[in-house]
TrEMBL record:
Organism the protein comes from: Xiphorhynchus elegans
Positions of the G-protein coupled receptors family 1 profile domain: 1-175
Cited PANTHER family: ADENOSINE RECEPTOR A1, OLFACTORY RECEPTOR AND ADENOSINE RECEPTOR
Gene name for this UniProt entry: Adora1_0
Superkingdom of source: Eukaryota
InterPro entries documented for this protein: Adeno_A1_rcpt, Adenosn_rcpt, GPCR_Rhodpsn, GPCR_Rhodpsn_7TM
Official protein name in the record: Adenosine receptor A1
GO CC term (a single one): plasma membrane
Function, as annotated: Receptor for adenosine. The activity of this receptor is mediated by G proteins which inhibit adenylyl cyclase.
Length: 212
């Protein structure tokens, strides 16, 4: 029922909703959930007759309550755990189908579910890299919020920030190495827009692969 349920229109609506929610979550500090009032109160206590000067540093202007309670506990951790459970169930179902087809000595279904298993492994790798890249920074944010007296080495913070930015570059590489259609599409884009060559679609790409 996948083709009847996941239509191009529904996929476009789902992608648009993800972007809208991301914008709203990311812009929440600009709507008022920030440290501006706290900084102003501190400045007024220290020097009531001087203008408020705000040091533009992340932990100075962004509220750790927002980063931990709203960003991490609502929009990162629950979806991550949910996706983990979904992938575990997917792997379980695919392995059951593979064992069933192997016992019945049917080659075509085995090949089909083998491709499904390969794609599931690729997507699970993307999920693992996301967790590996983003959890260190969120853990540091939790330490900053729940243990104000704890000092975090700046080098750890820089590494955690670097990992979060690097995660955006990891996904295309993983897709290109693990999924043939993505690799073919990336090569076509590279030749057409970077090498100024006309994109010629190989005959093999016209045949749809099962499960993609």
């Amino acid at each position: 029922r996948y083709k009847s349920v996941v239509t191009p229109r529904r996929a476009a609506v789902a992608i648009a909703c993800c972007w809208i929610v991301s914008f709203l979550v990311g812009l929440t500090p600009m709507f008022g959930w920030n440290n501006l009032s706290k900084v102003r109160r501190t400045q007024e206590l220290n020097a009531s007759h001087t203008d408020v000067v705000i040091t533009c540093q992340f932990e100075t202007v962004i509220s750790m309550e927002y980063m931990v309670y709203f960003n991490f506990f609502v929009w990162v951790l629950p979806p991550l755990l949910l996706m983990l459970l979904i992938y575990l169930e997917v792997f379980n179902l695919i392995r059951k189908q593979l064992n069933k087809k192997v016992s019945s000595s049917s080659n075509d279904p085995q090949k089909y579910y083998g491709k499904e298993l390969k794609i599931a492994k690729s997507l699970a790798l993307v999920l693992f890299l996301f967790a590996l890249s983003w959890l260190p920074l969120h853990v540091l944010n939790c330490i900053t919020l729940f243990c104000p007296s704890c000092e975090t080495p700046p080098i750890l913070t820089y590494i955690a920030i670097f990992l979060t930015h690097g995660n955006s570059a990891m996904n295309p590489i993983v897709y290109a190495f693990r999924i043939k259609k993505f690799r073919t599409a990336f090569l076509q884009i590279w030749h057409q827009y970077f090498c100024c060559k006309s994109a010629k679609t190989p005959p093999s790409t016209t045949t749809a692969e099962p499960g993609t």
